[in-house]
Write a structure and sequence with these properties.
Blueprint (H helix, E strand, L loop, with lengths): L3 E5 L3 H13 L4 E4 L2 H10 L3 E7 L7 H9 L9 E6 L12 E4 L4 H19 L4
Parallel strand pairs: 1-2, 1-3, 3-4, 4-5
Length: about 130
């Protein structure tokens, strides 16, 4: 089973642009426009291995989403979280796989996502 990447951003055009670039690099994606939508997608799709989320979003933000995604997960359901931020403040969420500052090169994000997919695959298969 190949793992997919969930891109979460309230600016849907940005989420779709990132998804298209990652899809082009053979990293299959799905998008969500909010943390609430992302949670629903995660519940419905066990093949999501990496969540890439904007930090600043209305209602629940990316750090709230990261905490929710990472809470109580065992290795058989492992998911890595990468946060995107346009502000210079530090992101303080224990357990995230990384943080990338906007603007960024999609190649840099793809490298982070690729490492996370590899790590999640190993954990889900019991080979940490």
């Amino acid at each position: 089973m190949g793992l997919r990447v969930l891109i979460v951003d309230d600016e849907t055009f940005l989420a779709e642009e990132i998804a298209a670039a990652l899809d082009f690099m053979c990293l299959p994606t799905i998008t969500a426009g909010s943390a609430r939508e992302a949670i629903s997608i995660l519940q419905a799709h066990a093949d999501i291995g990496v969540v890439v989320s904007d930090v600043r979003m209305p209602q629940a933000n990316g750090t709230d989403l990261a905490r929710h995604v990472l809470a109580g997960r065992d290795d058989s359901r492992a998911v890595d979280v990468i946060l995107m931020t346009g502000c210079s403040t530090d992101v303080d969420v224990t357990g995230i796989a990384g943080c990338i500052g906007k603007p960024f090169l999609v190649e840099d994000l793809a490298a982070m996502v690729g490492k996370s997919i590899e790590s999640v695959s190993l954990r889900r298969n019991g080979r940490t």
